[in-house]
Amino acid sequence: MAQGPQQVQVAIVGSGPAGLSAAAHAAAKGMTHVLIEKTDHLSDTIFKYQKGKHVMATPNNLVLRSDLDFDAGKREAILDTWDRQIEEGKVNVLYNAEVTAITGEKGNFTIECKSGGPITAEAVILAIGTQGNPNLLRIPGADLPLIQYQLDDPGEYYDEHITVIGSGDAGIENALGLGQDAAQANVVTILNRSADFARAKGANVKLLEEAEADGRLIVRRETEPAEVRMGDGHGELVLNTRDGQETIRCDRIIARTGSKPPRGFVEGIGVDFTSEERDAFPSLTPSFESTKNGVFVIGALAGYPLIKHCMNQGYDVIEFLSGNTELKPADQPILEAKLAGLPGNRSVEDWLEVFGQNVVIFEELSPLQMRELMLDSDVRYFNEGEVVFTRNEPGSSMFAIAEGSVLVEVNPDDPSVTVPIEQGSIFGEVGLISGRRRGATIRAAEPLVVVELSRTAALKLIATVPSAGRAVNRITVERQLLQMFRSGLTKEDVAELVETGEVMNISAGKVLIEEGADDKDIYIIRRGSMIVEKQIGGHPVFLSYLPAGSYVGEMAVIDGSKRTATVKAAIKAEVVRFPGEAFNRVLDANPALRQKLLNEMQGRREVNAFIEARKDSFGSAADMYSETAQFLVDEGIGEATDVLLIDERLCVACDNCERACADSHEGLSRLDREAGRSYANLHVPTSCRHCEHPHCMADCPPNAIQRGPDGEVFIDDTCIGCGNCQRNCPYGVIRMDAKPPKKPSLMQWLLFGRGPGPGEASYSWRKKHTEGEPPKQAIKCDMCKGIKGGPACVRACPTGAAIRVSPDKFLTFTKLTEDVE
Questions:
Q1: Would you state the CATH architecture of domain 147-255?
Q2: CATH class of the domain at 495-616
Q3: Which residues are in the Cyclic nucleotide-binding domain (predicted)?
Q4: Contacts of 769 by beta carbon, 8 Å cutoff, 6+ apart
Q5: In the CATH scheme, what architecture does the domain 7-132+260-321 have?
Q6: Is the pTM of the predicted complex or chain greater than 0.85?
Q7: List of the chain residues with pLDDT < 70
Q8: Which residues, 6 or more positions from 222, have their beta carbon under 8 angstroms from its beta carbon?
Q9: Distance separating alpha carbons of residues 4 and 94, to the nearest angstrom
Q10: Domain 332-485 -> CATH class
Q11: Alpha carbons within 13 A on the beta-carbon side of 383
């Protein structure tokens, strides 16, 4: 290849898919150009992909614009094709040329390289990517040699315990590569700090789920690394999980925790970024021009990691430089179809501008990022009075109000009692975050245009666009404050609290508030749960359980006293901390709220006084009570919303509970009375806890696991029997069983003999004696959803031994006084 001309129309820095496509099109159009690459080969990012990696060509519905060919296939085949076509197209490539500075103005830029003379260009295209700047681990032991940030050939590793940190496409693909060959005998674990793989392609997530189901690798959700250290002859990785810390063997760590743009270099050219956030992208026009006239940014540096997007941008930017101002992006037909039903005859570009200007979570998205988001979203129009969704309707999407406003029906018995949500805000975020059914009916207050983001699109937006994450967090905190404290509060009343609130993650068992401390903050529990304990005579005495949606710490804030009890996380929790001074200012302006909290505090003071007065009588009873509390937390009570308990002093082992469960569920009992653990007289049988944030929901391909209006977690008929939920449940309450035939009516049984009749063996027995393997489905307790009278197991118990209770009723102060009297 040539050694680079001294003067060109366009200089392209970086030979990834975007840069290659731009250079190939410049050559095809006869433009003088140079493609500057710092290595001795093209497309260094893909060159460094693991050997044999299958490269995807998504989105499938997007056409490819490029002079180069690209389709899904092996890394080696794609690179060979590009090498050949770049040579055939006579693209001018300058290898081993690392750019050190770009100076000058539009029409006369100077590009300095470490070696060789300067290059002058009328325009510069930055297509440099971000892979050369990986985000390093920031935990103790991060400098140990067992950590690496690149995986070249998975086939080089045998008989190792390998942990992949990172839940994006790179991390998933590395884990799959390391675990695909059973002969390698690797034990491969991948960590994901959340329950969803929001940053990864759907196809990769599906492959990961299949590998997990086959036992080829271990997927650990809601888990993050805490420390790396050397153990007895091998490495160890300390993990923070939902239930506390755990240590696993780890011979090698592949850290794929993302990368950041070379911001200092880019800003040095004169290019501005959208914000000061470390993950922000450059500010760009629809034609990819940056704030530095004549400097264009495409590809991963512009926020587009997908290869097809990058190649289209490379083609388009050359067209723009050639004067083709009429060119529309390749996704134009797709977006035109999505927006066709909206009023006003506006163009795609006009609507995207409306979305970006009017919606708070979109305010820092460039038109290019907005286009990508819209490919995974829907836009809907509603007339005044039309229902967007109804109370108890299933749904996990989030809505952004682009034009108009909505009314939330807060009282199910009186639809006229409503709360407005104005233009620019969001709704539906509760279903997105918790997986619960819709909590209220929402109607259009006026002609309404909303962007409906799928759960995947919303979580990806929150995870990858810092401003969107902040906006969603701010809105959810504001609404939680208004709902929790009520007393006529307005958004203006809590504005200072919302701005000063700090989101904190608390590991299982970690103390949030310590008895006797003099701090003055108040906390809202957003996820997880807390236990409140008090030291009495040297013994920790359990006082209460605080589920998600509770607040704690207000007593010391209001009266200035020291902390009267210890509050610690039952499981991994997320809380919002508010400064006491700001909270007191809210109370000063709202006397009714202060009085309400004072009344609640009086009850707690009476409890504390009673305990102090009887401290000499607690002794071993208090120890036993606290041990019981710990047992219940260990058994999943810390994340439960409803659980079955059996008092073994009353149970006569009649098994009526199991038979009633089977009779209510087509002969398949969801309950195993004998299984499970006991402490003292308390038995927790194998039955669903209906967790606040269910493990089983985290990885259900057909989204068959839903949450009912009363909090019950159930599995609908779309279950495909993959078994992911069974593997993810830490309490062993889900099993895979044959799907029973449809139950016949009485007349069908009498007249035609269909189905089992009186005296016939149950289906659960008959199915074991039939030939073949019937299709299976996931079976778990659904709290007898839709059955009048509530859970059949409780109704069928003749002695009252079986009870279903919510966590805050497990250990009450009344029970405590009964035990110690």
A1: 3-Layer(bba) Sandwich (3.50)
A2: mainly beta
A3: 361-462, 485-604
A4: none
A5: 3-Layer(bba) Sandwich (3.50)
A6: no
A7: 1-5, 131-132, 431, 433-436, 487, 537, 607-638, 679-680, 693, 698, 709-710, 739-774, 806-821
A8: 192, 193, 194, 195, 241, 242, 572, 698
A9: 6
A10: mainly beta
A11: 0
